[in-house]
Amino acid sequence: MHRLSYVNAILIQSRGRRLAVPCTRCRSGQGRLVFPECRQVPGAFGGACANCKWPDKASQCSVRDEFWHSLDGLREGSRMGGGGRHTRSLGSSQDNPINVDAEIIDLDEPINLDPEEGDHPNDPINLDPEENEEWPEIE
């Protein structure tokens, strides 16, 4: 066992749940099925079953988590000439910057660490416990 996908597939098969409706590949017997049951671990390896993960075909598994299916739809739209939504990460280009609202955050204003100079008396962070009783009990 040299491939990492083999180890991951064994983890999925040993710890995963058996699916009531197997993936398309397991149902059809397509390719060489290593495991007798179609099992998956939701949230791990995109939700692909062990039989699809074994040969590194997890992206083609029909039982993957919903999150991954929605990403495939976005990718398909961009391949087909813009039929689907195409999103870019914030800050990935000058056209899509990360904006810091100057009215909310004043970058020139220092953070006040001295509780005597204007911190709200009900502030849950007590930076000087000797002035305001003692440290709270943690249970």
From TrEMBL:
Compositionally biased residues, Acidic residues: 103-117, 128-139
InterPro entries xrefs: DUF3716 (IPR022190)
Pfam families registered for this protein in UniProt: DUF3716
Residues covered by region (Disordered): 74-139
Domain of life, source organism: Eukaryota
Stated name of the protein: Unnamed protein product
Species of the source: Aspergillus oryzae var. brunneus
Upper lineage: Eukaryota, Fungi, Dikarya, Ascomycota, Pezizomycotina
